[in-house]
C-alpha cells in the first residue's frame, strides 16, 4: 500500500463500519412534538415553532431507540414536510395514564412519565379525560420538567392551588432531579386544547422561623393582601398561537 493510500484510503472493513453507523433515512420515521424552553442551547439550529411565553415546539424522531431532532436544513425536503404535518396524529396515538395519589385526593393528577408525557397536552382526548377526572372545564398544567406533568382544576380553592404552585416551583428548581428543566410558567387548557401560557410573576420558598415553617412569596409585583391565583392568571396569560398548532 502506498504512503498516500495509507493516509487517505479506506479499507473495506472501515467502509462497512462507517455504513453501519450511518442513520437510516429519516423519511421512514414518524415525527413527534417536543416542548422546549426557548433558552435551549441547540435551538438556533433546530427547526422550531414559538408557542408563547418561554416555550417553543421542536420536532423529534425515535430512530432505532435514539432521539433525533429535526434541523433547520432538513425541512426543505417535501417528504419531511409531509411528515411534520402528521405530528398531531402521531402524538394522539401515544397512550397515557393519568393518576392521582392519596395525599392529593384526586384533586391533582399526574401523567405517567414517558418520552412524550408532557406533549400529551396537544392531544384533545387527553385534555378531555383530565377535565372529566377533575370535574372541570378548565385546567392548570405544570410542565416544569421533562417527566413531571401535574394537572388540576382552574377553579380549585386557594389552599389547593397554593400547594399545587409550591410543588410546581419546587420541582422546577430542584437541581437534584435529572429531568430536563422546561419552564416555570404554567399552561391553561379549556375543554380539549391548550389556550394560554402563564408567567405567574412570583416564586415560592419555604423556610423555618422560630420552629415554624413559613411559606414565602417572592415577587417584584404587589400581590395584594389576599392572593387570587385566578386573577393573576387572567392578568398575565399569553395566548398560544392556535393557527400554528392547527395548520402546521
Strand content: 25-35%
Give, in order, the helices and strands.
HHEEEEHHEEHEEHEEEEHEH
In terms of quaternary structure, the protein is single chain
Largest sheet: 7 strands, antiparallel
- Total of DSSP H or I helical runs spanning 4+ residues: 8
Which structural category do the helix and sheet elements fall into? alpha+beta
Q: Tell me the number of strands.
A: 13
Mean pLDDT: 88
Helix coverage percent: 25-40%
- Which overall shape is indicated by the principal axes computed on the Cα atoms? globular
Q: What is the topology, as strand order, of the major beta sheet?
A: 5-6-8-7-9-10-13
Describe the overall structure.
Helices cover 28% and strands 26% of the residues. It is an alpha+beta fold and 248 residues long. Residues 2-10 and 14-20 have low confidence and may be disordered.
Distinctive features:
248 residues, alpha+beta, seven-stranded antiparallel sheet, 28% helix, disordered N terminus
Write the layout of secondary structure elements.
Elements: H1 3-8, H2 12-21, E1 32-37, E2 48-52, E3 55-62, E4 67-69, H3 78-84, H4 87-92, E5 98-99, E6 108-111, H5 124-134, E7 138-142, E8 150-153, H6 158-173, E9 186-190, E10 193-198, E11 203-209, E12 212-218, H7 229-236, E13 238-239, H8 242-247
Antiparallel strand pairs: 1-3, 2-3, 3-4, 5-6, 6-8, 7-8, 7-9, 9-10, 10-13, 11-12
Amino acid at each position: 500500500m502506498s504512503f498516500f493510500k495509507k493516509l487517505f484510503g479506506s479499507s473495506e472493513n472501515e467502509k462497512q463500519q462507517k455504513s453501519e453507523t450511518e442513520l437510516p433515512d429519516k423519511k421512514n420515521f414518524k415525527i413527534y412534538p417536543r416542548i422546549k424552553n426557548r433558552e435551549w442551547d441547540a435551538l438556533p439550529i433546530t427547526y422550531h415553532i414559538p408557542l408563547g411565553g418561554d416555550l417553543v415546539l421542536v420536532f423529534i424522531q425515535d430512530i432505532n431507540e435514539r432521539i433525533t431532532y429535526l434541523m433547520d436544513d432538513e425541512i426543505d425536503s417535501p417528504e419531511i414536510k409531509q411528515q411534520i404535518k402528521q405530528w398531531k396524529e402521531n402524538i394522539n396515538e401515544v397512550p397515557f395514564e393519568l393518576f392521582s395519589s392519596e395525599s392529593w385526593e384526586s384533586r391533582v393528577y399526574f401523567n405517567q412519565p414517558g418520552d412524550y408525557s408532557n406533549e400529551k397536552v396537544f392531544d384533545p382526548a387527553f385534555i378531555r379525560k383530565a377535565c372529566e377526572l377533575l370535574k372541570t372545564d378548565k385546567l392548570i398544567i405544570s410542565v416544569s420538567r421533562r417527566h413531571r406533568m401535574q394537572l388540576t382544576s382552574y377553579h380549585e380553592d386557594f389552599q389547593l392551588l397554593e400547594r399545587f404552585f409550591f410543588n410546581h416551583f419546587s420541582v422546577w428548581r430542584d437541581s437534584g432531579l435529572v429531568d430536563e428543566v422546561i419552564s416555570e410558567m404554567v399552561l391553561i387548557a379549556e375543554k380539549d386544547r391548550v389556550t394560554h401560557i402563564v408567567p405567574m410573576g412570583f416564586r415560592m420558598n419555604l423556610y423555618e422561623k422560630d420552629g415554624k415553617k413559613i411559606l414565602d412569596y417572592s415577587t417584584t409585583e404587589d400581590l395584594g393582601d389576599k392572593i387570587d391565583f385566578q386573577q393573576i392568571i387572567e392578568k398575565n396569560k399569553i395566548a398560544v398561537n392556535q393557527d400554528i398548532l392547527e395548520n402546521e
